[in-house]
Each structure stands twice: as structure tokens, then as C-alpha cells.
Here is the input.
Amino acid sequence: MYLTLELLNGFTMILQLFVLAVALYYFLVGCFGWLPKRYKNSPGSRVNTFALIVAAHNEEMVIANLVDSLNSLDYPRDSYDIYVIADNCSDDTARIARERGACVYERFDTLARGKGFALEWMFEKLFGMEKQYDFIAIFDADNLVGSKFLREMNQQINHGYNVVQGYIDSKNPFDSWITCAYSFSFWSISRIFQAARHNLGLCCQLSGTGFAIKTELLKKLGWGATCLTEDMEFTMKLALNNERVGWAHGAIVYDEKPLTLAQSWNQRKRWMQGHADVASRFFVRLIKKAFSEGSFVSFDCALYLIQPIRVISMGIITLFAWLQMAYPDGDIGFFHMSYLFSPMVWNTFVVLQFMYMPIVIAVERKMFDRRMLLGYLTFIVYNLTWIPITIQGVIDKNKTEWSHTKHTRQIRIEDFEK
Here is the structure.
């Protein structure tokens, strides 16, 4: 029994070292998100052409406002076209999108269901068209797209990037406590994850929407990303092929966030299922490339793939820290964990991770609303729910059912750009 407890204690010490090492790495990398990006050369003046693709499944409530925002982009209108995939729709999505001026392709396939399959189907059609585009940009049907999106993307492309991710903002930050928590999360990700990697010359992560890919590169590599997190899968494919995803901080896409904890739980569980699936297929390959070729980009991507392990480890350690603060004498029916630091210090470390959020809001110049105060408090709850969600997602990583978020109201791009 004593030996078992010692082994268990040693294991938890390893967990603590792992969590602290990864946290330190992300802190150091995140610091570069506050610095301006320095380019060696000025961007060219080329006006690239774009095919804007929207994957839509029963999106009659929101598709019109998205197409309207795309039609209003501050970019030469003859340099982009709008394509909507009405994927297995049983509502008026296709009709509404056509009336708004989009070119609509209707797809009916009950076996190969999901956004990844729909995109792959549409890419093949684009490749076979007489008219060819320099780049293909991807959007979700519930998005609104900022007027400067293509200009900002075009600038980064002219700096030499073949793949560029835009800034994912929130379309409904104050609809509920969960949408506010989502907004805080995405604002911080944009600054201390995406911008930081862009500034360091690493590979940013595709976010499922608001990104553009060079058509020739897509033809060369093929899409092949059909899991629940097709964006992450394709990012890892790019890293293995020595392609880096750039970042356009001014190319804004407003994304609709789930209104309830139940909707959010289902969405994030799907993300974790896809994350675990991609990690199981790409982690070893990325680590091999990192050490055999000295690729820091591959190492950084591989480290991102093991985030579910970090989240679960942090949850275990934090739980024991709480218990040992409640029962300082160790009389809790099981072993007394040894800490690198005291449980109080550990809990302080956990809380401090949320202290940077007001700085992010100030730097990103987000409109202050008193509801942010409640959202800031519930942001901690939102983050804690990642622990059971991650566990559930890892367990169910081989399940590939797609959950659809139902939309209940309409928001126009003019509401954001007054």
C-alpha cells in the first residue's frame, strides 16, 4: 500500500511539472502577442481574386445577413465571388442565398455528412470551373464579415503567406453569460495565441471560419480534412508540409456563440472529440519532424495537440489542491499529494491565469459594457467546465456525429460597423 501511494505521489509530481512547463512555454510565447509584427519587405500591390465559400445546413435565419455582408466588402467587386453550399438543407437556405446574389450549389448526401465533406465536394467543383481564383476563403453561415476583411487578407497574402487566418470576434457577446465567456476566450486567443505565433514566425491555427487558402496549394495537398475539427486537421497537414498559417488581425469575422451551457457543452465536446482524434493521428508525426528536421513550428503544433492532457492534468491537480486546503491534516480518505508549491500557491497560479483579461479587452478596444463584469466572473466557470468536457471528448473521440446549432435571431453587419 505504501509503495502504491508513493508511486501515485510521484505520478502527480510529474503531472505538476508537465502542467507548469507547458504553462511557462505558453506564457513566454504569449508575451510576443503584444508586440507589433515586423516584416522584412513591404507587401506587394497585387489584387488577388477570391472565391468565398459558405457551408450552410438549414441556415435560413442567418444566411441573408452573411451574404449581404460579403456583398458589401471594401474590395473590388470583380475580384471575388460568393458561393453557398446548401448542404442537406430542408429549409429555404438555398432560395434566400440566391435572392441575395450568391451562387448556390445544393448537396444531398446523407452518408458523408458534415462541413469537411461539404467543403471537399465544393473544392472539386471550383477546380473544374473555367474561372479560376487565386485564393479560396471559408466562412460559416452564422458569420458576419467585416468590410475590410479581404483587404486585410490580401495584404498578408502579399507578404508571402499561402494560408491566412482572420480575427474571429463575437457576434453576440452579451446575449447570455456563456456568450460573454466565449467572447473573452476568443479575444484572448486572438491576442496571446494567434498574434503571438504570427509575430514569432510560427504556424497560427485555422479557426474553422474566416481563413483563406491559395488555390494551387489546396490542389497540391488536397483537402482531406473531414473529421469533427477539419480546421485543426488541415492546420497539422500544412505544418507537416512546411506551410505556415499567417494572421490578419484586422480581417474581422463576427461569429455567433451558443446561448446556453447545454449548447456550448455539445459544441465544445465536439471540438474535443475532433482534437483528440487529430492528436492521435498527427502528434507522433509532428514530433518526429520537430526533432529530425529541427522544426520548431512542428514542435509548437505538436504541443498544441496535447492540450486535452494538460487540461485534464490541471483539473486533477487543482481538485486535490482544493481538497487539501479544506482538509489540511490530510484526513480525506486517500493519500496526501505532495506539491512543488503549496496548494495555496497552486490555486493562486490558477486564478492568475484570468487576470490578463482586462488588459486584453483594453488593448483590443472592446466596447465596455457592465455585463462584462458578470461575464468576467462566469468566465472562470466556463473554463472549469472544460475539464469534464475534455474528458468526455477524449473518451468519445471516435464518435463523429455532427451537432447543429439552431439560430434564433438576426443581426446585421451594420450593427457592428456604425
Remarks:
- The two ends are 68 Å apart (CA to CA).
- The mean pLDDT is 85.
- The domain at 44-259 is CATH 3.90.550.10 (Spore Coat Polysaccharide Biosynthesis Protein SpsA; Chain A).
